[in-house]
Write a structure and sequence with these properties.
The chain is α/β, with parallel strands linked by helices and 346 residues long. It has 9 helices and 15 strands. α3 links the parallel β4 and β5. α3 packs parallel to α4, α4 packs antiparallel against α9 and α7 packs across α9. It is globular. The relative contact order is 0.15.
C-alpha cells in the first residue's frame, strides 16, 4: 500500500497540528480538508491559538493538490481519503465517526471522542460493526515521559503504588476558538472534559478502574462549565490518587502538564526540574526519552497500522478509552452533587 491519504475535518489548533505532522510523514499525506470557516479553507490559520507548543501560524498552510470541502460529510465520501481525522468541536465527533466507519474509512478522532454517554454508546455500536480501524487522540498515553513511567510501573520496576498526582493547568483560552465554542459549557464540557480528561484517562490507564470519584469544581471563565476541577479517585485500598485540571488562570500564566507517582521503591516526577526518578536508596535518575510529542507518536503509529493492515492497539482499545470517559462523566456528577462520592458504572 502506498502513501496513506488523510482527510482532516477541522483546522483549529489540533487540526493544524495534525496537518503538519501528516505532511512530514514519509508514508502519509493530507489529500482532503474540511472546515466551515472560509478563511481556513484557504489555509489561513493566523487566528489559531494553542496552549502548548509554539507554532508560527502567520503563513498559510499550503493546500496545493488538496481537495477542500465545507462539509465534513463530503470529505468522508472522497475516494482519495483512507483515514478521516476528526478535529472539529466535540459535539460533532459522534456523527462524523459513525458516518466515516459506515463508509469503510479508518478513523482517528480527537478527544473527547463524545460529548456524553449517549453519544459514546452510539460510537461503540458503530465501532463493533466496523471493519476499519478507530483510534482516539489520547495523546498523553503516547507522550514519552508518561509512556516511560507507564511501562516501568506496569513492569513492577517502582514497586507498589502509594500515591499519585496528575496536573494539567492552562491559561484562559477565552476567545481562542471558532465561535468561542470552548467557553460554551454545553458544547465543550469545560476544562473538565476537554483538558482534565487526559489525566483521568491516565489514572485509569496506569492503575485500572477506580470504584468511585469525589470531585470539586468551580466556574471561572466559561458559560456554565467546570473550569477548574480537583478529583480524588477511590480505589478503596491504601493509595491516594488525585488529579487537577484547569483553564481558569490569567493569559500570562504558563501552561503546566505534570505528574508525581510515589511508589515503594521510587518517586517518579515530571515537573519543573525535568523528568526524574528519585530512588529510595538515594539515587537520582534522569531517564532519556525521545524528544517528540504524543501527537507525533500516536499519529505515526496509526498510519503505520493502516498501511500494514494491523489493528492499532498499542496505546488503546475502545473499551479502555470508554472507561476513562465514564470516569470523567462521573466526575461531572460529583461536582454537580457538591463533591459527593459517585460510584462508577462500567
Amino acid at each position: 500500500m502506498g502513501k496513506i491519504g488523510v482527510g482532516v475535518i477541522g483546522l483549529g489548533f489540533m487540526g493544524s497540528t495534525h496537518f503538519r505532522i501528516y505532511q512530514a510523514m514519509e508514508n502519509a499525506h493530507v489529500v482532503a480538508l474540511a472546515d466551515v470557516d472560509a478563511a481556513k479553507r484557504k489555509g489561513d490559520i493566523s487566528k489559531v491559538v494553542g496552549n502548548i507548543g509554539s507554532t508560527d501560524n502567520s503563513k498559510p498552510l499550503d493546500l496545493t493538490g488538496i481537495n477542500v470541502y465545507e462539509s465534513g460529510m463530503d470529505l468522508i465520501n472522497d475516494p482519495a481519503v483512507d483515514i478521516v481525522d476528526i478535529c472539529c468541536p466535540t459535539p460533532y465527533h459522534a456523527d462524523y465517526i459513525v458516518a466515516a466507519l459506515a463508509a469503510g474509512k479508518h478513523v482517528f478522532a480527537e478527544k473527547p471522542f463524545a460529548r456524553n454517554l449517549e453519544q459514546a454508546e452510539k460510537i461503540k455500536a458503530a465501532a463493533a460493526n466496523a471493519k476499519s480501524f478507530l483510534n482516539f487522540g489520547m495523546c498523553v498515553r503516547a507522550w514519552p515521559e508518561y509512556r516511560y513511567a507507564y511501562e516501568q510501573f506496569k513492569a513492577g520496576t517502582f514497586g507498589k503504588l502509594r500515591s499519585a498526582t496528575f496536573r494539567r493547568l492552562s491559561p484562559d483560552i477565552n476567545g481562542d476558538a471558532w465561535e468561542n465554542w470552548f467557553m460554551d459549557g454545553k458544547r465543550s464540557g469545560g476544562a473538565l472534559l476537554d483538558m482534565h480528561l487526559h489525566d483521568t484517562d491516565e489514572v485509569v490507564y496506569f492503575f485500572g478502574r477506580p470504584k468511585a470519584v469525589s470531585s470539586t469544581g468551580v466556574n471561572i471563565v466559561s458559560n456554565g462549565a467546570v473550569d477548574h476541577v480537583i478529583t480524588i479517585y477511590h480505589f478503596d485500598n491504601d493509595t491516594l490518587v488525585e488529579a487537577e485540571g484547569s483553564w481558569g488562570a490569567t493569559r500570562q500564566t504558563p501552561f503546566e502538564m505534570s505528574f508525581q507517582i510515589i511508589c515503594e521503591k521510587a518517586v517518579v516526577r515530571w515537573m519543573s526540574e525535568g523528568f526524574k526518578i528519585y530512588w529510595r536508596d538515594g539515587r537520582v535518575e534522569t531517564p532519556q526519552v525521545e524528544a517528540t510529542t504524543g501527537w507525533h507518536k500516536e499519529l505515526q503509529y496509526f498510519v503505520d497500522c493502516v498501511q500494514k493492515g494491523v489493528k492499532p492497539d498499542k496505546y488503546q482499545t475502545f473499551d479502555s478509552v470508554l472507561d476513562g470517559f465514564k470516569v470523567v462523566m462521573a466526575e461531572q456528577q460529583s461536582v454537580d452533587a457538591g463533591g459527593k462520592r459517585i460510584e462508577i458504572q462500567y
